[in-house]
Amino acid sequence: MNESRDPSPAVSRALRILEALEAAGGAPQTLSDIARTVGIAKSSASNICAALERERMIHRVGSGYRLGMRTAELGGAFASQFNQVREFFEVVEDDPLLSRQVVQIATLDVPDAIYLARHEGRPNRLGTPLGSRLPLIYCAVGNAMLMAMADAQVDELLEQEAFTPLTGRSVSSAPAVREKIAGARARGYAIDRGESFEGICGIAVPLEPWQPGDPLMAIGVAVPGTEADDETVARLGEAMTGAASRLSNPLARRPGAPA
Predict the structure, then answer these.
(1) Using one digit for the tens of pLDDT, what is the confidence trace for 20-55?
(2) Contact 154/215 with Cβ under 8 angstroms?
(3) Model confidence band, residue 106 (pLDDT cutoffs 50, 70, 90)
(4) Is the pLDDT of residue 253 over 90?
(5) Which pTM was predicted?
(6) What tens digit of pLDDT does each residue of 160-173 get?
(7) Which of 5, 26, 82, 145 lies at a 20 to 30 A Cα distance from 104?
(8) Second CATH level (architecture) for the domain 80-252
(9) Every domain of the chain and the residues it spans
(10) Could you tell me if 98 and 121 are in contact, meaning their C-beta atoms sit under 8 angstroms apart?
């Protein structure tokens, strides 16, 4: 951004510092690191970091800084604005199949899906950390959100897509994505067979917005690829569809829709 036209350059610099600490992945960043990454004087970085530290947005670790607890509180507050996220854990824990799986909710931030909430039903770690992003075209929750978009919206997104594969199974063309989405719409749920992570299969369905203005969301489950036979995938797809129904606004359900 051209700071000569920025009405609040200090705020913009503070946000860029937070983004730099996010990108560091938890590795403490010194004032010199921050100043170099953000492109500001070290004295400016020092003043802004002091203010951010007072507000618990960052905290000091030795001679460097990492994101602070306040950022986690704000992230949780963002997710809890949405009814589906608040109801998510109870719905999953009440399901005898899903309660034993890794289940997640993600929301749309084109061209990615961002993970908001996670139920840990397995002892081994699967799935994607909260706050992480994955491209819509590869991950199951992303494909599920594409299912819910109009074809024109999908085409517009694909026109901007660079197709940078995450694994050897990742799709590499717009026609391949359209074919996946058509298949997902036909069966009622999206499948990611190792396109995001080798050896992991994801199954996901879109969530209907609870109220006007809510972002597009999807709920998905991750299982080891060795367990993802057709029968298991179909059972999980059916369970995902049921969970999505229970996570819809009861006042907005169409007559005859499942409760």
Answers:
(1) 998 998 999 999 999 999 999 999 999 999 999 999
(2) no
(3) very high
(4) no
(5) 0.78
(6) 999 999 999 999 99
(7) 26
(8) 2-Layer Sandwich (3.30)
(9) 3-70, 80-252
(10) yes
The topology (CATH level 3) of 3-70 is Arc Repressor Mutant, subunit A (1.10.10)
**Dihedral pair phi/psi, residue 253, rounded to 5°:** -70, 140
Which tokens hold the place of 50?
């002091």
Q: Which amino acid is at 78?
A: F
